[in-house]
Amino acid sequence: MKPEEFIRILAQAARLKITTRHCYTEEDRKESVADHSWRIALMAMLLSGVDEYRDLDMDKVIRMCLIHDLGESFTGDIPTFEKSGNDADVEDDLFHQWVNTFPEPQRAEWTGLLAEMEALETKEAKLYKALDKLEALISHNESDISTWLPLEYDLQFTYGQENMRFSPYLTQVRALVDDWSREKIEQES
Fold this sequence. Notes:
- The protein is mostly helical.
- It has one domain (3-188): Hypothetical protein af1432 (Orthogonal Bundle), CATH 1.10.3210.
- Helices cover 64% and strands 6% of the residues.
- The protein has helices spanning 3-13, 33-47, 58-67, 72-75, 85-99, 106-119, 123-142, 152-158, 161-164, 168-188, and strands spanning 20-26, 29-32.
- β1 and β2 (29-32) form a beta hairpin.
- The chain is globular, with a radius of gyration of 17 Å.
């Protein structure tokens, strides 16, 4: 990879540092897409020591976590409850067009990762997707409840549920996050 290509790719990726998500990390500060991607990569790294995941290629999972939302560097983040199929298609198309400008071997690696992530057939892809959803729930619980929209009170208990069922460990973590959500809602009342 030529140094100019390296800088060009990093410059586009850096847009995620200022691309905000729906969730707040603290009072008056919205979470960035980079914040989210970093934390799901950290979550994958932490899980590498859990027996259930010992047979997985956790380096691949971490790579998936790091690149999964880079399409949002072109489109911005659209909350899941507002994102249409057309929005997702545009984001995916722009992401794929960008990756196709990469030099080899990065283009081949990223194209392969994206195909695996979209198919959601491997354990690695399923884990990355589950962590993506779980991190959003955790971030939401960390946000002040005054920032929650009315629809999010129910969404907090249904979002990503199907993505975590394959994993006994994540099912346990999800139960803890659900308890945390209930406590947060009850404290508001």
